[in-house]
Design brief:
- The structure holds 2 protein chains of 2 kinds.
- Chain A is α/β, with parallel strands linked by helices.
- Chain A has 9 helices and 10 strands.
- Helix content of chain A is 33%, strand content 28%.
- In chain A, helix 3 packs parallel to helix 6.
- Chain A is globular, with a radius of gyration of 17 Å.
- Chain B has a domain of 217 residues.
- Chain B is built from 14 helices and 2 strands; from the N terminus they run αααααααβαααβαααα.
- The longest helix of chain B has 27 residues.
- Chain B is globular.
- The chains are: A alpha/beta, B mainly alpha.
- The interface between A and B is medium-sized, with 31 and 22 residues.
């Protein structure tokens, strides 16, 4: 028996004012699955993620998470339900220390078990009293993921996780994402095909606001031979 | 040094210094500075912690002032009760008004607060003139009985009482800004409201509560003003004085604990001293504000705190390197 679907997006369309950016997008994510959406700039990847996290209201379609319809809900409600969104801009709260950033997440979720954060990102323990403003891009990414996993979310939506990061940090992220997927499903979007090939179990290729292919073959994923779809 | 500035002991030392300054400075001046600093504290919190600039502060000051004034004129003679009534009146109004105003951001929030101030001025000056006596105001000098423990009808009593209230307000804001999760969430609203929602926070509630707290503190200052001056008139809500609280907050350092006090000291000092020589004393405040803003946009206390924080961060960033050299 296969894993159940944790997220199901059906015929999702979205627009910024008059300009339509998503056209009838449908996808499924299974529990504890690692899925990636790849596509060029402007393909609509980030818009799709924002619609799923209720940061943007779709013009049509539905997003069902854990048997609950998310369209029409506020983004804070979606986060409380266990679907967390991590933005691409590596923005942590600059005036707050690492400790305060984690406390903020703990207070919202009621989960004060920071050991699981430090298990994945031991460096955060060393940087615990450093302000967000003084963290590097990689450290900020760790903190953002660390904050998001408090409260035991069932799905992490991560936008461009490797953007601007050094190759050694990207290697660490691959390992971390593999470990994290034991507890939750991960959907990443990005253009770094080598990273995607190393983490994804399934890939959706996106072009001009539409999902043009679904790649499930492990060999095809490993060789990045799906790039012709983009 | 930073620990000293941040800690509650620092607040008591400042209080003691201020109290003993009465030997060198007129008590009336110091009382006004302290009440003004309470007034500016709310505004400073809104600007510095939430990034919401309000040009409607005189309205919130007026609700507290009229709450106390109306009680003393029509219902009772106890100044303690009057202050309590002023604070409660302000609290109720802020809870209602906040529900609408905090939905707005940046310039819209600023302008709608100012518009609310204009409406409030009209209400107290014209619409309720039968009860408020408009520009003539409510004269309360013969309507206040001496109060037990601290006699608020005596200059010395109101001076001491204002200091005690100021300390309580400072301690409260010290907890709010430095120790509470709520204070941290306020900073995050200023930094990036959307990101805070990703973590599961309903940011409307945070902004609403901050608005109510900040403006109820302004109402408290208004109630103290009424008891201190033994009168209240519609000019307290005049929109022409709306920039005073903002200027004081920015001069001292918006969002800092001692910024409103430092700003009030300079503002009232310039008003009292310079106005003896030049009629347009505000020119000097304006000039000083420009200089302070150009020097770092954080105000006097804000710049000092920022300098100390940078020094601390520099030290902490050097620590791993030192550890490696130490062979650990």
């Amino acid at each position: 028996m296969g894993r159940p679907n944790i997220v199901e997006v059906k015929n999702l369309s979205a627009a910024y004012g008059q300009s339509k950016v998503l056209f009838d997008v449908s996808l499924k994510i299974k529990a504890n699955e690692r899925v990636s959406i790849v596509g060029r700039n402007g393909a609509g990847k980030t818009t799709l993620l924002k619609c799923m996290a209720s940061l943007l209201a779709p013009t049509n379609g539905s997003v069902v998470y854990d048997r609950t319809e998310l369209v029409g809900k506020q983004s804070y409600e979606v986060a409380r339900m266990g679907l967390k969104y991590i933005d691409q801009d590596k923005h942590v709260f600059l005036d707050l220390t690492v400790r305060e950033n984690l406390e903020l997440s703990s207070y919202a979720t009621g989960d004060y078990d920071w050991d699981k954060v430090f298990k994945h990102f031991p460096k955060l323990k060393i940087l615990i009293d450093r302000k967000g403003a003084y963290l590097s891009g990689g450290e900020r990414q760790m903190l953002m993921v660390g904050r998001a996993i408090l409260g035991d979310p069932k799905v992490l939506l991560i936008d461009e996780p490797t953007e601007g990061l050094a190759p050694s940090i990207v290697d660490d992220l691959v390992t971390t994402f593999h470990e994290l997927s034991k507890d939750c499903a991960i959907l990443t979007v990005g253009q770094n095909l080598s990273f995607v090939s190393r983490i994804a179990e399934r890939i959706y290729a996106m072009k001009e606001g539409k999902l043009v292919a679904e790649i499930t073959d492990a060999a095809e994923i490993k060789n990045s031979s799906y790039s012709h779809y983009l | 040094m930073k620990r000293f500035i941040n800690s509650w002991t620092g607040i008591f030392i400042v209080f003691i210094l201020l109290y003993f300054l009465k030997g060198f400075l007129p008590p009336a001046f110091l009382t006004e500075v302290v009440i003004f600093s309470i007034y500016a504290m709310g505004c400073s919190f809104l600007i510095g912690r939430l990034g919401l600039t309000s040009f409607g502060q005189p309205a919130f000051l007026a609700f507290g002032a009229y709450g106390a004034g109306v009680y003393l004129y029509y219902f009772g003679t106890n100044s303690y009760v009057a202050i309590l009534v002023g604070v409660l009146a302000s609290l109720v109004i802020n809870m209602l008004v906040g529900t609408f105003l905090v939905r707005l951001n940046s310039s819209y929030f600023t302008l709608c607060n100012q518009a609310f101030c204009v409406v409030t001025f009209f209400i107290f000056q014209k619409a309720l003139v039968k009860w408020t006596f408009g520009d003539n105001g409510l004269l309360l000098i013969s309507r206040m009985d001496p109060t037990p423990v601290i006699d608020l009808t005596s200059p010395r009593g109101i001076y001491l009482f204002s200091f005690i209230i100021a300390i309580l307000v400072w301690l409260f804001f010290n907890y709010l800004m430095k120790k509470s999760v709520f204070g941290a969430t306020c900073l995050c609203v200023k930094d990036n409201e959307e990101k805070l929602r990703f973590l599961g926070y309903k940011t409307f509630n945070i902004k609403w509560l901050a608005f109510v707290i900040a403006n109820t503190v302004a109402g408290l200052a208004g109630a103290l003003y009424t008891v201190y001056f033994c009168m209240v008139n519609a000019n307290i809500a005049n929109v022409s004085s709306a920039s005073e609280a903002v200027a004081i907050s920015m001069l001292g350092g918006a969002g800092t604990l001692f910024g409103p006090l430092v700003g009030s000291f300079i503002f009232i000092g310039l008003k009292d001293i310079v106005s003896r020589f030049i009629s347009h004393w505000e020119v000097l405040v304006g000039f000083l504000l420009i200089v302070v803003m150009l020097a770092g946009e954080k105000g006097i206390v804000g710049s000092l705190e920022s300098y100390l924080a940078k020094r601390k961060a520099k030290k902490s960033m050097m620590q791993p390197a030192l550890t490696k050299e130490g062979g650990l």
